[in-house]
Write a structure and sequence with these properties.
8-stranded mixed beta sheet; alpha+beta; globular; 170 residues; 8 strands; Aminopeptidase
Length: 170
């Protein structure tokens, strides 16, 4: 798993140097439409990052830190998950301060290209129906709705209204 590059971004395999940025940025504003809850302490974030590293080593999931190429600013995480399945799943979040700059779309596009190099033909992208920015990413990459509504209860009791897109890799 290598670092992936775009015009503006570097997608770096997540490592322990990203723990503080993840802990600081993965907050209540970010999780509104996401399954995982906010970490209660930095040790929880450390354990999550260690699990990402283990998953990468086992070849089941690739999680990248999204950083700005010009200054290495941490922007969020993007992942290609469930790699043992024939149709892996995309996942992304960017910190609140980075919203509105299309970094998410750029990062997802780069991961889609990487998935193509890995010979995947389709990807799954789960989005809360109320998350317009994420829905726009799915649609931008030709995503077609395969499940229009799936109710999900998060670990901290929130209710997500999931819409599932399938993105064919061209």
């Amino acid at each position: 798993m290598e670092t992936l590059e775009t015009n503006r971004l570097l997608l770096i395999p997540v490592n322990e140097s990203h723990i503080k940025d993840i802990f600081k940025s993965f907050n209540e504003k970010i999780i509104k439409y996401m399954f995982p809850p906010v970490a209660k302490n930095i040790e929880e974030t450390t354990n999550v990052v260690k699990s990402f590293i283990k998953q990468r080593e086992e070849g089941t999931d690739y999680t990248y830190a999204i950083t700005l190429k010009e200054n290495n600013e941490f922007l969020g995480l993007v992942g290609l998950h469930n790699l043992k399945n024939s149709i892996p799943t995309l996942g992304i979040w960017t910190k609140y301060e980075a919203h509105g700059n299309h970094y998410g779309r750029e990062a997802i596009g780069t991961v889609i290209k990487y998935a193509k190099r890995l010979n995947y033909k389709k990807l799954i992208y789960n989005v809360d129906r109320r998350n317009n920015a994420s829905k726009k990413i799915a649609i931008y990459y030709g995503g077609k709705v395969i499940v229009d509504y799936k109710k999900i209860k998060t670990l901290d009791g929130r209710i997500l209204k999931e819409k599932i897109y399938e993105i064919k890799i061209k």
